[in-house]
């Protein structure tokens, strides 16, 4: 009898579930967050019916997670790319949190995620992965950089056995059940919180620069920094968590709550909790300490915006900042909603017409059967019942929102010397550093939309391109 094999998406789903179980044991408030998210999702589904599943089935939304980890070097980033590559997750998007954060957050990031629509529907697990930037002189002088790079070079985050299994899985697209079980055990263990004592003096040295730098470069392992369930009503979740006595950060990051379509991504979290950690003093004594580095994040996902839509979003954020500075007594949320109502289309139809958001288009089974020829215009096809437009879910992240979550959970502002010029990093640099192309999210969404239009044209036997 042949042994059962697990495909990449099955491994991805199993890894996400085990990681969630592990993180719930380590951070019990995360389990509360998951429970409240499920309650809110059930209530929204009852209240809104099918409309609640406009951006994904309730089973997908309830199972959905994104994780966040932090590594120290390009080599470590390359190794984690191999682990996630085994799970069918590819580096997508480049995020520079150094520039997005007001406080000291010396990291650049990408997100590992599935990129195919069917794979996302099966399990959309993503991991936002940040890498420390020791070469940036705004944060690290020459001496500290040399000490930090030496420390990072001397640790091993991922055992060779895990990496070998990951490479095999990525090459073959599956693993036999026994090897799959071993791979999952090794992979989950790599992201558990270590019990190894932390060098108190070294950690404190880095913490003076940045709490994020200390969390990455002050320990000899990595760990899940947060896991994030998805919720259909993040404002209601925020209220319910607060009612349970769990301290939330001050705001919900991202677009405001308003009467129009949900776009991009809204995020919030409970504050980082003090967790007991073993600390080694300069005298070699091991004492009990506590660190606040891990928190529970939750997200509500909206429609993916085009480049033009994203540029409009960024302009509106700048306007909100300007108006909030000019009117310090005004409620920031009210200012944001007013600007949204003035400048952002209030319907999905107008978002599509103005090419501000991405949609897939599907031929309607009970389309007109009166012998008429379908028009060659997408908008007309939708209006006259030939096509159905479905919004594409935003699968990625917002650097300013991510930085806002990081900042809200930091114990201090850290140190940043702006007399120095920052070291330049971009998507091309990261691609070269990890030996894998960092994909452009806009290109992925555009291809998904264009493929659906081409399929619709073929089904409707339209010879020319749809406009």
TrEMBL record:
Keywords: Dioxygenase, Iron, Oxidoreductase. SMART domains: DUF1338. It comes from the Bacteria. It is an enzyme of class 1 (oxidoreductase). GO terms for molecular function: dioxygenase activity. Its cofactor is Fe(2+). InterPro entries: HGLS, YdcJ_bac-like. The keyword Oxidoreductase applies. Pfam families: HGLS. Its EC number is 1.13.11.93. PANTHER family: 2-OXOADIPATE DIOXYGENASE_DECARBOXYLASE, PTHR39479. Belongs to the 2-oxoadipate dioxygenase/decarboxylase family. This is 2-oxoadipate dioxygenase/decarboxylase. It comes from Streptomyces himastatinicus ATCC 53653.
């Amino acid at each position: 009898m042949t042994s059962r094999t697990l495909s990449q998406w099955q491994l991805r789903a199993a890894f996400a579930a085990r990681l969630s179980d592990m993180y719930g044991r380590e951070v019990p408030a995360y389990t509360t967050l998951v429970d409240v998210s499920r309650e809110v999702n059930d209530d929204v589904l009852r209240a809104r019916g099918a409309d609640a599943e406009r951006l994904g089935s309730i089973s997908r939304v309830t199972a959905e997670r994104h994780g966040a980890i932090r590594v120290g070097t390009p080599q470590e980033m390359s190794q984690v790319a191999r682990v996630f590559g085994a799970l069918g997750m590819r580096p997508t998007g480049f995020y520079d949190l150094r520039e997005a954060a007001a406080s000291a957050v010396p990291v650049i990031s990408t997100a590992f995620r599935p990129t195919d629509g069917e794979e996302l529907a099966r399990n959309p697990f993503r991991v936002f992965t940040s890498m420390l930037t020791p070469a940036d002189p705004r944060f690290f002088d020459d001496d500290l950089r040399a000490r930090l790079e030496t420390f990072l070079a001397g640790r091993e985050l991922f055992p060779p056995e895990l990496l070998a299994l990951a490479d095999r899985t990525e090459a073959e697209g599956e693993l036999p059940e026994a090897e799959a079980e071993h791979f999952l055990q090794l992979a989950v263990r790599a992201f558990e919180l270590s019990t190894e004592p932390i060098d108190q003096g070294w950690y404190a040295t880095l913490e003076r620069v940045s709490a994020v730098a200390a969390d990455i470069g002050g320990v000899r392992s990595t760990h899940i920094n947060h896991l994030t369930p998805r919720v259909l009503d993040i404002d209601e979740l925020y209220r319910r968590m607060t009612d349970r006595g769990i301290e939330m950060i001050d705001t919900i990051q991202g677009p405001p709550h308003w009467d129009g379509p949900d776009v991009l991504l809204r995020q919030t979290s409970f504050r980082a909790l003090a967790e007991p950690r073993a600390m080694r003093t300069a005298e070699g004594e091991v004492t009990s300490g506590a660190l606040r580095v891990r928190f529970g994040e939750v997200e509500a996902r909206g429609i993916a915006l085009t480049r033009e839509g994203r540029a409009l979003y960024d302009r509106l954020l700048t306007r909100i900042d300007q108006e909030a500075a000019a009117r310090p007594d005004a409620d920031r949320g009210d200012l944001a909603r007013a600007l949204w109502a003035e400048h952002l289309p209030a319907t999905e139809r107008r978002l599509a017409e103005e090419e501000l958001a991405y949609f897939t288009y599907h031929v309607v089974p009970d389309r007109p059967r009166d012998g008429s020829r379908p028009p060659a215009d997408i908008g007309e096809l939708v209006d006259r019942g030939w096509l159905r437009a479905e919004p594409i879910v935003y699968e990625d992240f917002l650097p300013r929102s991510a930085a806002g979550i990081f900042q809200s959970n930091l114990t201090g502002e850290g140190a940043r010397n702006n007399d120095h010029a920052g070291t330049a990093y971009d998507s091309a640099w990261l691609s070269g550093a990890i030996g894998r192309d960092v994909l452009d999210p806009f290109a992925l969404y555009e291809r998904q939309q264009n493929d659906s239009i081409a399929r619709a044209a073929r089904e409707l036997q339209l010879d020319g391109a749809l406009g």
